[in-house]
């Protein structure tokens, strides 16, 4: 079952090694539980404040979640939008907690202050939930070799796009790419070199397509690209840029200079077909590209 994120029908994948991401998800879950315990303790102290207390306790200023945030060093996680929002919101929780406790000690605490504090706490939980869902999505649906989304994730994206264009009367296209003579690379240079070529091509693909296009590892040496809001002309132009970029690349591996090309089949979605029909059309055009000499982009004529 696909994991959903509030505000987006399909969550973004976090481009991080799955082992690192699994550890991060575990630590995030443990830190969230400890933060819940901190919040319960804060509320208890707020209600049953010892008459001898005249200053804000240290535990109000810092919790175990602070240590969790400090320990995150992976730049892709640390620099992500949701993590930065999580850290900033968490700082806001403690800032407001200190203020509330001090106003409580001074006898000037207003209900509205506590309401603002709890709304900040809810925002914190929202960003925690987003990161948990994105991490789980990436672990389940990210190809460990190339970092691209998998075929299983692709099916959800395509169905979502199909649903969207039926509401908006827009269009989209897909492209199937296959590396030409890839078996020769494995046979000549070995499978580790073949893996490096796949990773390199996946990187070139993501660098060349538009920011809002989405690429997937379809299987083996095949890739699929989803091109939202692109008719057949725009899709072909985009794939020609990909083809030219791959053809011009020299991949250095263990002293060898490896060159490779791609064959590409493109198809535009039609309201009278389903997703399976769309993929079949792109696959047939890919076959034509292979049969007509490879290293080319083919569409229905």
Written account of the structure:
The chain folds into 2 domains: 18-141, Up-down Bundle (Four Helix Bundle (Hemerythrin (Met), subunit A)); 151-298, 2-Layer Sandwich (Alpha-Beta Plaits), CATH 3.30.70. It has helices spanning 18-47, 58-61, 64-71, 75-78, 81-106, 111-141, 151-168, 182-189, 191-208, 232-248, 275-291, and strands spanning 172-179, 214-219, 222-228, 251-253, 256-258, 262-268, 297-298. It is α+β, with helices and mostly antiparallel strands and 301 residues long. β6 (262-268), α11 and β7 form a beta-alpha-beta unit. α1 (18-47) packs antiparallel against α6 and α5 runs antiparallel to α6. The strands form 2 sheets. A 5-stranded mixed β-sheet has the order 2-3-1-6-7, with helices on both faces. Strands 4-5 form a two-stranded antiparallel sheet. 60% of the residues lie in helices and 12% in strands.
Strand content: 5-15%
The run of helices and strands is HHHHHHHEHHEEHEEEHE
DSSP, total strands: 7
Helix content: 55-70%
Shape: elongated
